[in-house]
Amino acid sequence: MNTYITIPLRYLRGRMTRTILTTLAIVFGVAVIFGVNILLPSLLSVVNAGVVGATGQAQVTVNSAGGATFDDSALAAVRQTGGVAAASPVFRRAIVLPGATATQLTVVGADPATAQQVRSYQVVSGRFLTDADTRVVVLTNDLAQKLNMQPGGTLHLPTPTGLVDLPVVGVVVLPGESDVVMPLATAQNLFNAAGRINAIDVAVAAGSDRDSLQQALQAKLGPAFKVGSATLASDTFASLQLALVMFNFFGVLTLFMAGFLIFNTFRAVVVERRHDIGMLRAVGATRGTIIRLILAESVLQGVAGTAIGLVLGYLLGAAGNAALENVLQQFMAVRTGTEVVITPSNLALSIGLGILVTALAGLWPAISASRVPVLVALRAETTEATARRSLRGPIAGGVLLLLGLAGLVSGNSSLGAVGALLFLAGLVVLLPSALHPIARVIEPAMRWMFAREGQIAEGNMQRNPGRAAVTVSALMIGLAIIIGIASVLSSVIGVVNTYGNRSLSSDVLLLPQNLALWGSDVGVGPDFEEKLAQVPGVGTWTGVRYAGAQVNSTSVQVLGLDPVSYPKVTALTFDQGDQSTYAKLGQGRYAIIDKLYASGARLNVGDTLNIDTPAGPQTYQIVGIGTDLLNYKINTIYISQANLSADFHVNEDFMVMANLAPGADAAQVRSAINGLLAGYPQLTLYWGADYRATTLATLNAVFGALYILLLVLMIPSALGLINTLTINVLERTREIGVLRAIGATRAQIRKLVVAESLLLAAAGTTLGILGGIALGWVFTTFLAASFSSGVTFSIPFAWILLAIVVALVIALLASAIPARQAARLQIVRALQFE
Q1: Phi/psi class of residue 637: alpha, beta or left (left: φ > 0; alpha: ψ in -120 to 50)?
Q2: Are the C-beta atoms of 618 and 647 separated by less than 8 Å?
Q3: Which residue in 151, 321, 322, 395 is deepest, having the highest Cβ count within 10 Å?
Q4: Phi, psi of 612 (to 5 degrees)
């Protein structure tokens, strides 16, 4: 076993520059994957703790399937189930306390008679609730410390009817929770949910199995209920999960390119050690021994690169957590703090991918090396042998391209992802055959720039087209991905700007502090709307309401619009439908759905939806497909406010928009509305034009960060180019010595290496641009079908120009070390090199 470590380590130490460059490729790939998979769980833990009502010490919780309220008729069924020690009705409402710190907390309406049977409230000061209590509250110790409040204080709580003052009568210990506990009836009245609850907390009887009880309750209550624990709102999780998939995509692409670099390196290793391999085979080494030696070398690099990548990824995740704090505070009223969460699955995924990629990249060269006969390995490979294999590449590449295109145009996201990889792989396989024509086209420019050096560089590239092709492929893939995704991002930015200018077009916006998590916001009731309508200078106004729901086990958010006032103040962006579509919402159970949901569920105008509501399953017919800026990334259904009230018992406006009356004084209107909001601090006044500009600037900054991340994909390309040039200098040491012996200067040797680098970069840039345009068109077509017909393909000329400049800069930088190394070779030692 020591042989499979000592010999690979000796080779790695002998080519330290190449070892470092190859290992760095793995480092970057693992760091991106590990870092983003740290970031999301860290974010989820903070959001979950602040937004979702926790079950405390209750061992089982019963919720409605869609998260809406329900009456207490299910309570008797729960209590009669075997294995239930106690059950307590609960009304939970996650809210944000207005203020500079935007404190997240959960209002818990608890039954004083049964609450302590299912949750352990340990009183540390004051007392707990009694049956005689009405408008009083008990705070958890964690929240009391945040608010610096003790028994005898007064909590100012925002409600749909305005700000209410509630005396604090006690502080209890409930580890990790930030709860305001009040009598159940009080919570129901304050939040317009008289006689309704949204959870039943259950304590498991001694000797009973928790999992078995959950299954029994689920079977008894049916699909309208969900038995388990309180969790993060599914629409929020889906949105965050989408971000994780996107960033993981970048990480996988980085590892994919790193794999090509390693594959290229070990192909060169096999060629370089051809004679060594022949000698090992001659003295009795088996094919398995050769495979294991080369694989051991690749795995050693994979282990080292993965270990460093994990450290770098941790720092990346921690830095991202800190960088997101301002954005999350603005849109979600969440403070990230310093918590960094590392999940076992993330650790296993990062380690597994890092080592697996290196092992797979070294496997094929290892197998190829083991198959070379001993006598052939002891002499140079003939040109005829290479020629016999020359037809395999074009055939295999053509097949991969066709399969990739089929997957890309299939419309299926999974097949599309596989198709993209197959398409890129096809370009790579075709590269050896394409290098000669590309070199012939570039030849005049190379001769003009470098004269004889360019001609020699062209010959060197054509002498080993396989290795040159894999090097060019790393650059080609990087540029293709950058240009392809840049074309998509530029189109998406245009669509987002369109959404923003339409859906945030009103003069006045009254928004909650938490724009991303509707369920944690407190709305306003009819009394507020009456007061707003009486403000001098306020013209037409409209409100938006929210409820969570399930459609065929898929979580959706349901938004309630007023069919008459909504189109007078703002507008959806329709893929199917027009202004007349709003009126249809008020003519029965009709709905508008967003393009994301329509695409995922394969729904069209005229189809029906079976929505699980607190009033029972309801059937809605789809009359339009459209969306707005705040909801385009979440499965969304728009219905009338009348239907939202009847089916979901929701009568709060979570967002209010208004236009100024003709001739109104904007300053006076602003002052009057701010005075009105003093009693409703859950809403904040924004002037429409200012908010649109700020929001779109923030979103564009996020997209700008994605552009920077795209450039990270060029790092493996640069490493691959440096690696290949270094290997070429090593292999041609004797040749360089001969050139120096017959009069070539050091400057000419440097020009030779630079010319070869530019030639490889030119080939990679040419194919990368073509591949990027093709990928951009396919990706844009897919997004248009999945998200919005407004996503249209356009050739990103600015990014093509940037790609050319970046490729040239990379080529010059990549040639610096190998050129210096080649020029410094001493003639006598170079001529003696074997």
Answers
A1: beta
A2: yes
A3: 321
A4: -80, 120
